[in-house]
Amino acid sequence: GAVVSQHPSWVICKSGTSVKIECRSLDFQATTMFWYRQFPKQSLMLMATSNEGSKATYEQGVEKDKFLINHASLTLSTLTVTSAHPEDSSFYICSASIGSGGSYEQYFGPGTRLTVT
Amino acid sequence: AQSVTQLDSHVSVSEGTPVLLRCNYSSSYSPSLFWYVQHPNKGLQLLLKYTSAATLVKGINGFEAEFKKSETSFHLTKPSAHMSDAAEYFCVVSENGGFQKLVFGTGTRLLVSP
User: What tens digit of pLDDT does each residue of B41-92 get?
Assistant: First the structure.
């Protein structure tokens, strides 16, 4: 149980184009999903917190107009990288949260590798 | 604000020998602490978590970690390393409640030689 999928697993796009990444919780409903970015050989950095039916909360320094997040249902959140540039090339990882009463656990997707040429 | 420090970027062990991956944390509140493992080209997998219950936490694949408040540490151990343990390990801290925001350490790459 508690499986999170991401699609696509890797994508190559040209500079200036937009790319959409999907994150799905396959066997549970997640009111909260998170988007992380991981540069090569570095740690994960939280980009934004996505709550179903409301606007995402972005971390400091993350451009909300560039990284559009939509959490339209309890099982799907999407990250759209708009007008992508080579510096946006990275590994993007989502997670979905289960829990209540102050005790939560995040389940992570396998990640999406984005290369912008 | 909470943070974690993983003291070693790389740890090399021989198969069958003990593993020790060190982690120190800083938190203003009672923290939840986690260890995640990341194999190449795969998602993060939760090894174990501490959430203010027993200070010695047992996880999957023979790993365990001990929460030591006086030392602000949460080191990960395993008595005997397997080749399949070679991966990147992340120590993670979260403040209880709220949006469960996780803060990741910089990671420790575990290398296991035959």
Answer: 778 899 998 887 788 999 999 999 999 999 999 999 999 999 999 999 999 9
Q: How far does the CA of residue B80 sit from the closest CA of chain A (Å)?
A: 26
User: Per this entry, what is the length of chain A?
Assistant: 117
Chain A positions touching B41 (Cβ under 8 A) are 110-111
Q: How far is residue A79's CA from residue A60's CA, in Å, rounded to a whole number?
A: 17
| Contact by Cβ (8 Å): A83, A66 | yes
Query: Given a cut of 60, is residue B97 above it in pLDDT?
Result: no
Provide CB contacts within 8 A for A27, sequence distance 6+: A1, A2, A3
Going from the C-alpha of B42 to that of each of A13, A42, A79, B111, the distances in angstroms are 22, 15, 19, 17
Q: Could you say which of B41, B101, B107 has the minimum Cβ distance to residue A43? A: B107
Tens-digit pLDDT profile for residues B28-40: 777 889 999 998 8
Distance from the Cα of B79 to chain A's closest Cα (Å) equals 26
Tokens, residue B90: 């992340």
Burial of B99 (0-12, 13-18, 19+ CB in 10 A): middle
Q: Which amino acid is located at B103 in the chain?
A: V
